[in-house]
Amino acid sequence: MAEPKKANYLTGAAILAGTVALTKVIGFIYKIPLFNILGDAGAGHFNVMYYIYNLLLTVSTAGVPVALSRLISAARASSRPLQAKRYYTVGLIAFGVIGLIGSAVMFVFAPQFADFMEDSQVVLGVRLLSPAVFFACIVSVLRGYAQGHNDMRPTAVSQIMEVLCKLIFGLAIAWYLKAMGYPVNIIAAGAIVGVTIGLGLAVPTLSVMCRRIAASSPATLNLDQPMSRGDTFKQILKVSIPITLSSSVLNIINLVDTSLVRGRLASGAGFSPDQVDILYGVYSKGMTLFNLPSSFITPIAVSVVPIIAAAVATHSHAEAKVTMESSMKLTNLLAMPAAVGLAVLARPIFNVLFPGSNENGPMLLSMLGIASYFVCTYLITNGILQSTGHEKLALLSFPIGGAVKIGVNYILVGTPSVNIAGAPIGTVCCYTVITVLNILFMTAKLRERPNYLKITLRPLLCALLMGAAAWAVEGLGERFLLPVVGGRLGGILCLGLAIGVAVILYAVLILALRAVTKEDILLLPKGAKLAKLLKLS
Length: 537
Hints:
Distance between the termini: 30 Å
Helix content: over 70%
Order of helices and strands: HHHHHHHHHHHHHHHHHHHH
Structural class: mainly alpha
């Protein structure tokens, strides 16, 4: 029975990880036209609204799906179906009430949240988002119920539904309000309604899917005596609160950091409110691209956790080391070219995707490109620490990195000659510190540690050669192709040519230098077929 269960678990993890990657890519596609509609200032308002919502959402729901899935799964495994049902019913009522309270807080105190974020123009958007907290609480319970039955499809379907609603309804409302001549803060508020609509539609969809799961569950004659509703709720809180706290740290840091950056641009660097909106907005555009590479690392981080955990549990430390090295090398192979590409092609990328933006955009994106590598490395090292039983150490690096980010931003963003450039510098420092701390923790605590030079040098060499080629090809394109084609189309062709050459060269280099092995590829979905296609032994 162990192998089928393991296979089911890995399949479920792959479904969730692939869904996360897909939703992030769709979200990226959604934000490109949206931010072009909103402009720099509107993009900043949109991000401020979302950070406020995201914090309340995390506090209300972050640990619920994991807690319920774990508790329901354990109850079912122990032949206690009535207790499993009680976890679900108590969770639905309790977190429904918590969701109503969260929505009310968000609606009533929207002006206070806006003042804290140094952006008085987001009040309407925060209020329009407030029902989403209630919907998210209900959705999180339904997801937990489905996951507790080892069915990840409802979670995947609802996540995709949410992001598609943002794409369809959010963009449609934004275009309409733009055409009607509304100011950018109203357009941003309208665009973010897509989040509320998506979660609202996910509730009945998940309800139907969960009913089908319940109907298909095998009947049992075991009439177990469930715990009281109060004890059941306490058990849910006991499991969910630590997860919620750990998930909230980064959101709190982002919220404080956003307020700090906007405040220091005004009080320290001396910019007017309109200038603050523009500068923070163009930084928000860069953050959209900065977050994209990490979406491709999430599937790896999720997939390796059970593999490493199983190896450690059976004292197969050599096997655990091989998996750690392969996962970190694969992260390097994906994250390094993405980071180098964003850094060296920042100007054409920004000008093609966000034409007419503030002139600081390419410079901000170039630095954020460097930071994106450390985000990816932090994700995989965090997964390794969690899988080896050192999750508390992984939590320790978050607040330290956040404190560094806040300190650097306070000093640099408030310096007139640096201003908004201090924000990506703070981001680089933050994630570099987190990554270094995680690696130090791994070095100190793991019995078999990865060979860091072995997994870094060849991918880095390939990425640097690729970056040099991309920079040269794009420059030649601008010199010879752009004058012939001209305009944005010419820029797109030059950028596309540079990226195409970079991708081909990078693929050739990693195979020629044997930077990737069969063990590395096997960590990817359909890895066996891919390894066979590449003729890796």
